[in-house]
Design goal:
The protein is mainly α. 89% of the residues lie in helices and 0% in strands. It has one domain (2-61). The radius of gyration is 15 Å and the shape is elongated.
Length: 66
């Protein structure tokens, strides 16, 4: 069960990064406000914080003792 949880954590943690990369390759103009506007940069920081917190929580939940 723990290995399934770890795999799920890796998939869910990597999915947003994969989506951003695919968006950057297919339509780079769509992401320009996220890198040039102050609000976009703030949202980037918020998104990274939330992603990191989610990965941290899922990792803690996957490590349990029987």
């Amino acid at each position: 069960m723990s290995s399934e949880t770890r795999a799920t954590t890796m998939i869910l943690g990597g999915l947003p990064i994969l989506v951003i990369v695919l968006l950057a390759l297919s339509s780079p103009a769509y992401l320009v406000p996220l890198y040039t506007d102050v609000r976009g940069i703030m949202l980037d920081g918020l998104a990274l914080t939330m992603l990191g917190t989610g990965i941290f929580i899922m990792t803690k939940m996957a490590r349990f003792e029987i």
